[in-house]
Amino acid sequence: MVSWSSMFKFFRKVFSLFGLIKKIITGLIFWVILVIFIVAMFYNPSPKVREGEVLVLAPQGRVVDEYSKAPFEREMDAYLGEPPEESLLSDLKWCLAQAAYDERISAVLLDLSGFWGGGTANISELSQSMEEYKLSGKPLYCFAPYLSQSALSLASLANEVVLDPMGEVFLQGYGSYRAYMKEGLDDWGITAHIYRAGENKDFVAPYLHDSMTTSERNAMSFWMDDLWGGWLSLTAHNCGIPRETLEHYSNNYGSLLQSTKLSPAQLAMDKGLIDSIMTYDDYNREMISRFGLDDSGVGFSQTYWLDYMAREAGSLPALSGEPKIALLTLSGEILYGEGDWSRIGSFQAELILDEILNDPDVVALVLRINSPGGSAAGAEMIRRKLERFQDYGIPVYASIGNMAASGGYWIACEADEIWASETSLTGSIGVFSFFFTMEDLLKDKLGVTVDGYGTTAVAGSYNMGRDVSSETNKMLQSGVDQIYRQFLNLVATNRNIPLADVRKVAEGRVWTGRQALDNGLVDTIGTLEELIQYAAEESDLGGSYQLVQYDDNQLSSYGASFNLIPRISSLLSLPPLVQNEIAPLLFPEENPFGDPRQINAWSGYEVIQ
User: What values do phi and psi take at 259, rounded to 5?
Assistant: First the structure.
């Protein structure tokens, strides 16, 4: 006779088996779903290109030299239906170059519906690629729901520009505006301690003044007026209208709308900036009449640029020719230590340069620099690594993108030659350091004073609750002056310019590529592709070489970085900061509002276009 205990054990084993089976099935389902999810994200079959199709070139977001997000983040954004925030300049240029010679492609449509703009040099290089495409004799069309200034730079090159009836062409010119905080800092009892070298090193000007100084305005207008004048002349030429018409349009846009009673789109057509006004549906029907239907029977015969690139780039034979030219992109703020996807970390850059240097097949290095600067120590670490290329007889060439200013130029000046676009920004040869203390705020508003004992004249120098001693001020200013002298000597030696002449173009002054060519800071006006071709010619490679691309994100991590530039948002949050966190900040080893030991080679201008 079977006991109840035995039956209970039997059924418990059966249920345990069922539980195990359930876990196995659940696990299998999880892994199947995970595999399907990954495949869905990464597998994107590209349709075959048919004869006579139109290549739809639709840059999304901003045109950049390299992505500021990790690949997984971009894939997740795409999977969740988020529009891309960036498009690679190199991808867009590649598509235009391929389309020019691809007999299956009959035309290119530049669709600017998702275009957010790009830096001056990147837009200039993309424009040049569009001009080279047009040499093939194939038409270039453009449709846009709205045309910003940078969008018009591209659209003006098209054979036909179509604007949505609700659109407009809005030209802001160039501008750079900052909040000046001296009065506010004084009211709060916050003291800005500034140490700088270079009369026009104006990154810290907002903490010293309540408005732009005359010298700052003069220095800024010098390069900004050059950018604007060049843009007006070129765009007016492309549109086939007098420059004066374009200048009058931009300066009197509101008055023109009021006086003519035209819609913004109609005004743009009246002034010759566009050719016609249509909705996209109407334009689609127009394109169907020209190029026929696609497979869906709804749109015109077309292939999307990312599909085209994925298919055509993947079908190209692998390059096996040697030797190699290494192309390294350095984009973003320069940090000493670890970087991330939007900033250049000196540690990663050094490791990648070591990898390139240890490749015996590399015969030349081309740098693509797009940086406003940052840590002087970080820039110097990268520059020292470039010196080793010179020691091994490997030439280094630098291509300046939108900007290689201050620390960015510190790196670039180690190159054998520096190339730039006419609209690149560079120079800003100067350094600074700064931090804040708030002894008056603590005493006058909270009744808190900081006192203590130190064994030296510099003990407690960086405590935010104390004033800075005379000895500390001398120490910090001397450090900045020394780095500035190092910067000047570096430029004088590497650029073969007398030190006295370097001083004249330094002082923190920013220059356009055109101006930098005139004063010897760059060697040639040209694109990245032209520089790569030049590097191949100088190395006697002809057309038999590999171009191996690297970027500073290849070894990026998301760990802590030495980003010690204080943010305005920190200042704006002072009341809750003081209320909630004042106790642990009274005696800090590190001042949270800037690090005086961090000497920065940085250009603080962000051009609005």
Answer: -75, -35
Where does residue 212 rank: exposed (0-12), middle (13-18), buried (19+ CB within 10 A)? Answer: middle
Q: Which residue is listed with tokens 């030219």?
A: 325
Cα gap 52→302, rounded to integer Å: 8
How far apart CA 165 and CA 158 sit, in angstroms, is 19
Q: Which two tokens stand for residue 389?
A: 């290329």
SS3 for 123?
helix
Summarised one tens digit per residue, pLDDT across range 77-131 is: 878 888 889 999 999 999 999 999 999 999 999 999 999 999 899 999 999 999 9
Give CA–CA dist 202/215, Å, rounded: 10
> How many other C-beta atoms are found inside a 10 Å radius of the C-beta of residue 265?
23
* H helix intervals, 496-602: 499-505, 513-518, 528-538, 568-572, 574-585
The 10 Å CB-count burial string (b at 16+, else e) for 539-552 is: eebeeebbeeebbb
Buried b (16+ CB within 10 A) or exposed e, 556-582: beeeebbbbbbeeeebeebeebbeeeb
Task: Read off the amino acid at residue 423.
Answer: T
Domains in the chain, ordered, with CATH? 53-169+274-315 (3.90.226.10), 324-602 (3.90.226.10)
Helix (H) or strand (E) holding 334: strand 333-335
Q: How far apart are CA 219 and CA 216, in angstroms?
A: 5
pLDDT of residue 566: 30
Answer for the pair 219, 471: CB distance below 8 angstroms, yes or no. Answer: no
Burial of 504: CB neighbours in 10 Å, binned 0-12, 13-18, 19+: exposed
3-state secondary structure of 304: strand
pLDDT of residue 253: 95
Nearest in space to 67 (alpha carbons), one of 305, 326, 331: 331
What CA–CA distance (Å, rounded) separates 126 from 128? Answer: 5
Q: Which two tokens stand for residue 539?
A: 């190395």
Q: What sign results for the dihedral spanned by CA atoms 556, 560, 565, 568? A: positive
- Give the pLDDT of residue 150: 94
As to burial, measured by CB atoms within 10 angstroms (0-12 exposed, 13-18 middle, 19+ buried), residue 278 is middle
pTM: 0.81
H/E segment holding residue 329: strand 324-331
Q: How far apart are CA 357 and CA 355, in angstroms?
A: 5
End-to-end CA distance of the chain: 92
Contact (CB, 8 A) for 603 and 403: yes
Which pair of structure tokens corresponds to residue 310? Answer: 């994925």
Please give the helix or strand (H or E) that residue 104 lies within, else none: none
| Whole-angstrom distance, CA of residue 410 vs CA of residue 592 | 27
Query: Could you report the per-residue pLDDT of 551-597, keeping only the tens digit for each?
Result: 766 543 332 222 222 322 333 333 333 333 433 443 344 444 455 55
**H/E run at residue 207:** none
The dihedral region occupied by 52, where left means phi > 0, alpha psi between -120 and 50, and beta the remainder, is left
Q: Which residues contact 580 (CB under 8 A, 6 or more apart)?
A: none
Q: What's the pLDDT score for residue 6? A: 57
Taking the C-alpha atoms of residue 307 and residue 176, their distance in angstroms, rounded to an integer, is 38
* Pure H helices in 241-336: 243-251, 253-260, 264-270, 280-291, 305-315
Sign of CA dihedral 280, 281, 282, 285: positive
Q: Which residues contact 65 (CB under 8 A, 6 or more apart)?
A: 88, 89, 90, 122, 329, 331, 368, 370, 401
